């Protein structure tokens, strides 16, 4: 409430009290305050504009750092994963996280941590697949494949995707989870698919 009455107008392009709550130093309530602001963000991230507001306070970057830190709890990690899932619903946001935050590498490295639960590892796998499905669609539909530079870029990203997908599949194969078969199949599709070849087929069908 103090945030709302502090100024004569409400700044809708800002996350209220984000740093104060996210980096809470209160001994008794720091977990509750951090969870509250993360829950607010998870519920509020609906469209790309919301993501742009969060980026002004480096929210996603701080969430990624929190997830892998000793300060994180199961509940805070769950909220971070939900925030990422909401963000990756939009291709423009996925593209930004891919190129500017290198989210694909962060997911791959983080998923290898032995301290994570099987649920968290499977969730990370889902995020990885969603991210690369967006990037694959972008590469195939919005990149000029007749341009040599663009074709080389597509080939490079596909090889990186295949390499990271194999690492994710290796991790997933070690997880005892009933839902892993679905995501393992999707990883196989990412590994085996030819982005440029599929685009040619789609153009022929059109």
TrEMBL record:
One of its GO terms (biological process) is maturation of LSU-rRNA from tricistronic rRNA transcript (SSU-rRNA, 5.8S rRNA, LSU-rRNA). Residues 1-106 form the URB1 C-terminal domain. It holds the Pfam family NopRA1. It comes from the Eukaryota. One of its GO terms (cellular component) is nucleolus. This is Nucleolar pre-ribosomal-associated protein 1 (inferred by orthology to a human protein). The lineage of its organism: Eukaryota, Metazoa, Ecdysozoa, Nematoda, Chromadorea.
